[in-house]
Specification:
Blueprint (H helix, E strand, L loop, with lengths): L1 H5 L2 H17 L15 H23 L6 H20 L5 H12 L3 H14 L7 H20 L3 H14 L4 H13 L3 H14 L4 H12 L3
Length: 220
């Protein structure tokens, strides 16, 4: 009886080995990208929460002009890896593309950031009335406007900046950016208008105050 049972052990061990392999495959990286497998909505939400925890502080520091520490850069890189996991699980969901774009922008990976921003815009519901969606739609366009301004593609920057201001007409940063772009295009009257609007909402906006001085020197 004991001998009869033992003859099945190779099959039992093989089954256990396969089960363990499948469990580890769901938890460990596959490929050079460090892409993990998410299997459930619960895992998705847990991963999203972890991404936000990792990236929030570094992104705030980056947007405020601070030099990122090695720890902050490592957190962004880890967050970038986890966002790939989110996108693989829900490729039609736009928020991970926004997070990826902002993370890559802070890491200096602008070509990849632009691609993810543009994908996010394609996936965003245009008819949404959700305040978070509306703000995100404006903010992504602002980031793209800044990028194209920095690469001297002022017409493209102008289109994105105008769209951002139209979607959030009380945001001083958006208006100051639009004013700076108008100035580079030689549209000084429009640059003056948007500079004044930005200063009306935020008298301490650094871009607007610097542009104000430049326009005064130009007689505007």
């Amino acid at each position: 009886m004991q001998t009869s049972a033992l003859k099945y052990w190779p099959f039992v061990l093989a089954f256990v080995a396969v089960a363990v392999w499948m469990m580890l495959a769901a938890r460990t990286p596959t490929g050079d990208e460090g892409l993990y497998t998410i299997l459930t909505d619960e895992q998705y939400e847990q991963t999203l929460a972890r991404v936000r925890e990792l990236t929030k502080g570094p992104l705030i520091a980056y947007d405020s002009g601070q030099k990122l520490t090695n720890k902050q850069l490592d957190d962004l890189r880890e967050g970038r890896t986890l966002v790939r996991r989110l996108i693989a699980y829900q490729p039609r969901n736009f928020p991970p593309y926004v997070i990826m774009g902002k993370t890559q922008r802070a890491l200096g990976e602008m070509d990849e950031a632009v691609r993810n921003y543009e994908q996010a815009l394609l996936l965003m519901p245009e008819d949404s009335t959700d305040p978070d969606v509306l703000w995100t739609a404006a903010d992504v366009r602002y980031d793209l406007g800044v990028h194209y301004y920095n690469t001297s593609d002022y017409p493209t920057a102008e289109a994105y900046a105008e769209d951002a201001v139209a979607r959030d007409p009380s945001n001083a940063a958006y208006m100051a950016s639009l004013g700076a772009i108008k100035s580079q295009l030689g549209k000084l009257d429009e640059a003056r208008y948007w500079t004044n609007e930005a200063l009306k909402y935020d008298p301490n906006n650094l871009v607007a105050t610097a542009l104000d001085e430049e326009l005064k020197k130009a007689g505007k």
